Amino acid sequence: MKVIQKYFLALVPPESIIEKVQDIKFLIRDQFGVKYALKSPAHITVKMPFNYNEAKEGLLIDKLNEYLKDRKSFPIQVSGVGNFGKRVVYLIILKTSELENFQEGIKQFCKRKLHLVEELSDRNYHPHMTVAFKDIKPIHFSEVLLLVEKLSFATEFSALDLVLLKRINGEWVLFRKIKFGA
């Protein structure tokens, strides 16, 4: 029987940064009841959620390994806070040429090799690390934004791998890390 699952592709920071971002998400939850962002670990999406046959996960991972085998690491810079309207608060990821080229390559790979539909977000890439979204009440939005601005931090890390996340029991799980140059 064919079982379709949801997946997405992301760059995931080192554990120390994941913990800092998680702490911000917990404070937002505790102060404002905003918890939807806790359903996924800190990440920078490079391919939005897509449906894929679970029985072909191994093939998906093999194709990603093949695509990334010659990929070199590149720097990721976190700096500042931004928002999409009054529905999303995020940490800004600087849109470097390396990151832009990486995302463009993933977009083409997904279209050609995985036969995935190109989404609007694939064409209009805006790298970020979400800390609050979906369940922010309009009355609290300014306060949430102010809190994140107070807690935000600037840092840099090296993107060393691509992570395949999988939706399991309503949560996004770091399912498989695919190392660059492996």
TrEMBL record:
It comes from the Bacteria. One of its GO terms (molecular function) is ligase activity. Pfam families: 2_5_RNA_ligase2. Gene3D superfamilies: Cyclic phosphodiesterase. The keyword Nucleus does not apply. The keyword Zinc-finger does not apply. InterPro entries: 2H_phosphoesterase_YjcG-like (IPR050580), Cyclic_Pdiesterase (IPR009097). This is 2'-5' RNA ligase. The lineage of its organism: Bacteria, Pseudomonadati, Bacteroidota, Cytophagia, Cytophagales.
